[in-house]
Amino acid sequence: MRRWYEIVESLKIALAAIRANTARGVLTTLGIIIGVMGVITTMTAVNGLASSFKESVSVLGSDVVYVSRMPWIITGNFFEFRNRPNVDLKEAQKLARGLEGAVVNPSTHTRRPLKYASRTVDETDVLGTTDRQMQVSAAVPELGRFLTAFDVQTAKPVAVIGAELRERLFESIDPLNKEIKIGRHAFRVVGVMEKQGSAGFFGGPNFDLQALVPITTFTKVFGGTGRNIDIAVKAPPGSDLADFEYAVIGEMRNIRKLEPGEKDDFSINKMDSLVAMFNNVMGVVLLVGVVITGISLFVGGVGVMNIMFVSVTERTREIGIRKAIGAKRRSILIQFLFESSVICLIGGLLGLAAAFGVTELIARTLLPASLSPGIAVVALLVSIVTGVLSGIVPAHRAAKLDPIEALRYE
Question: How many other C-beta atoms are found inside a 10 Å radius of the C-beta of residue 56?
Fold first, then answer.
């Protein structure tokens, strides 16, 4: 009980000392404010990027492998990949026949301007695909319908557009059954996809700015059947993805008649590779952010330490009087540690308030970001620890003062 009383009294004295030097305390906390705001903003921005990215790439499917000419993330010799033969529609058809129970969906893309009435969206990603796209992707239409097998078989000039395309081309107008121009060719809009976001972090498409058309129509109006395609292959239910990946590789090697010693002249891509690369990049970004903000906290902590030395010097007589009437070294030590901790905690709270405002601005203008209670608690704990570390040496110096010498101090 007595120890609790000492702590409460030390806290009261510390708060009184801070109120007596408010301007000095505010200036001292600037480094802490900037450091805490930096830590919180970095962590919330990274979390926002991670959630946005994972939500976007989830449409690729966790049980889907993609057969492509090039890897999504190139780590070797670019020219080796560039010189590979294209993956074509005939190979997709053979792959579908060879993989029993798997869903095989070929797709290819180009960039063309889209136009409706007087509105134009330049260089939109146009994806030629099939009705099986719905089976390999998690995205679904928000309005209308998706492409059907009949659309693909008869090469119908129909299109399903992304959410952002709808906003830019049609605004408040109902887009269904309206005619748009993709390049010089007319297409009828039969559906609008739900909002999906972008995989542009690695140069991927913005799914909300895509127009999807039957692959047969695509090859008829934009290019021949020899065009390079990507093949999405969804594993049969209950199958092991690693084993299925080997089956896809083996079937592709058979299709291309590769000898046992020859290298694969195609790439197998998965969502996991994108997520792993993203996590590595975000880890580096977070580390750099924490180091930079850590330097700011260190500078702020040095500032608090200097002010605490000044405070000990100014209050030498007060320390002498307290010791003369029975105050123990522990009480003096706790008092000054409380003072430095409260200064840093105030800085942490102000930094938290500033970070909340910055986070709201990021969420409204750039990407979905929110300040989680966990991050806020960590930031405040960091502030308190910084205060304790900054106050240890000045508090120890105050506790060691000789009361007689302290009372003589002018």
Answer: 22
Residue 211: how many CB atoms within 10 A of its CB? Answer: 24
Cβ pair 104, 95 in contact under 8 A = yes
pLDDT over 80 at 52, yes or no = no
Cα dist from 80 to 69, 204, 364, whole Å: 11, 21, 43
Per domain, the residue ranges of the chain are 2-55+276-408, 85-265
CA 205 vs. chain centroid, Å, equals 17
Separation CA 180–CA 129 (nearest Å): 18
CA distance 209 to 214: 17
DSSP string, 294-354: HHHHHHHHHHHHHHHHHHHHHTHHHHHHHHHTT--HHHHHHHHHHHHHHHHHHHHHHHHHH
C-alpha to C-alpha distance for 218 and 103, rounded to whole angstroms: 21
Tens digits of residue pLDDT in 81-94 = 788 888 888 888 89
pLDDT at 395: 84
Q: How far is CA 332 from the centre of its chain?
A: 47
Q: Is the pTM of this model over 0.85?
A: no
Tens digit of each residue's pLDDT (9 = 90 or more) over 145-158: 999 999 999 999 99
**241-255 vs 89-98: helix crossing angle, rounded to 10:** 130
Q: What's the pLDDT at 156?
A: 95
Number of H helices, E strands in the chain: 15, 10
Which H helix or E strand runs over 390?
helix 373-400
Cα distance between residue 343 and residue 349, in whole Å? 10
pLDDT at 274 over 80: no
Residues 317 and 319: their CA atoms lie apart, in Å, by 5
